[in-house]
Design goal:
InterPro entries: AAA+_ATPase, ABC_transporter-like_ATP-bd, ABC_transporter-like_CS, FeS-cluster_ATPase_SufC, P-loop_NTPase. Keywords: ATP-binding, Nucleotide-binding. This is Fe-S cluster assembly ATPase SufC. Pfam families: ABC_tran. By secondary structure, the chain is α/β, with parallel strands linked by helices. It has one domain: P-loop containing nucleotide triphosphate hydrolases (Rossmann fold, 3-Layer(aba) Sandwich). Helices cover 39% and strands 29% of the residues. A six-stranded mixed sheet has the order 6-9-10-3-11-12, with helices on both faces. A four-stranded antiparallel sheet has the order 2-1-4-5. The protein has a two-stranded antiparallel ribbon with strand order 7-8. Helix 4 packs across helix 6 and helix 6 runs parallel beside helix 7. The chain is globular and about 55 Å long. Bound molecules: adenosine-5'-triphosphate (ATP). The site of adenosine-5'-triphosphate (ATP) has 12 residues, from strand 2 and helix 1.
């Protein structure tokens, strides 16, 4: 369970989150929708512990612990995973090498035995097939020259390897054609579990037809301004934000 209370965050001196409150329940899928620039990516970065995001007020409690006191790698080891809106390219590091070192770093931090090259290859191959991530992609430098859809599929592959407890998907649907969207949604749905929460950030109802959320929250002007069930996403799609919520100044 994740509980965010009155969260205030600034980036480069600019106030972005302005008193955000949000509860994400264990085992549930929560969707966050909101206009451009409302602070959705900022929220995902703050949860993952990215540098440069200054928390000036409020609290985030994750399974009874103060998340804001944890370093980024500690958060990952405790099961927080962020599928980024713009996955980073790392020239010189093959995708396979990256997956192995990231997974083993988490295993080390949890005191679990690490996987050797063979074990890793077997695991990745099995999961990659379902997400149509080719062997050739696994040999290439991480995300370098990958299409938008390939990058997003790789993010979901990472998620299925890391088996996080709290997965944050930041606009994982952007740049996906309809077949890739279904593939990614299927990948996400197979990871739904009673001990795993998901925070799905999206602009479009379309994704939520495939990944049906338990709760929908609207983020506008740095605050959660409306909450509801999955029907709220339909209402937003139909009427637009301006007619459904009042955006704080
Ligand atoms: N480094 C920065 N310096 C100044 N302003 C920033 C910085 N990073 C983000 N912002 C601003 O913070 C606001 C929120 O950005 P954020 O990316 O969180 O929005 P978002 O809701 O994810 O938007 P979108 O839907 O367009 O992806 C935007 O107005 C953005 O320009």
């Amino acid at each position: 369970m994740l509980e965010i209370k009155d969260l205030h965050v600034s980036v480069d001196g600019k106030k972005i989150l302005k008193g955000l409150n949000l509860k994400v329940e264990t085992g549930k899928v929560h969707a966050i929708m909101g206009p451009n620039g409302s602070g959705k990516s900022t929220l995902s970065y703050v949860l993952a512990g990215r540098d440069g995001y200054e928390v000036t007020g409020g609290s985030i409690v994750y399974n009874g612990e103060d998340l804001l006191k944890m370093k980024t790698e500690e958060r990952a080891a405790k099961g927080i995973f962020l599928a980024m809106q713009y996955p980073v390219e790392i020239p010189g590091v093959t995708t396979m090498m990256f997956l192995k070192s990231a997974l083993n770093a988490q295993k080390r931090a949890r005191g679990e035995p690490e996987l050797d090259a063979m074990g890793m290859l077997k695991l990745v191959r099995a999961k990659a097939k379902d997400l149509q991530v080719s062997e050739e992609m696994l040999k290439r430098a991480l995300n370098v020259g990958f299409s938008g859809g390939e990058k997003k599929r790789l993010e979901i592959l990472q998620m299925s390897l890391f088996e996080p407890k709290m997965a944050i998907l930041d606009e994982t649907d952007s740049g996906l054609d309809i077949d890739a969207l279904k593939l990614v949604a299927e990948g996400v749905n197979t990871l739904r579990a009673p001990d795993r929460s998901m925070l799905v950030i999206t602009h479009y109802q379309r994704l939520l037809d495939f990944i049906v959320p338990d709760r929908v929250h609207v983020l506008a002007g740095g605050q959660i301004v409306k909450e509801g069930g999955k029907e709220l996403a339909l209402e937003l799609e139909e009427k637009g934000y301006a007619d459904v919520v009042k955006v704080p100044a």
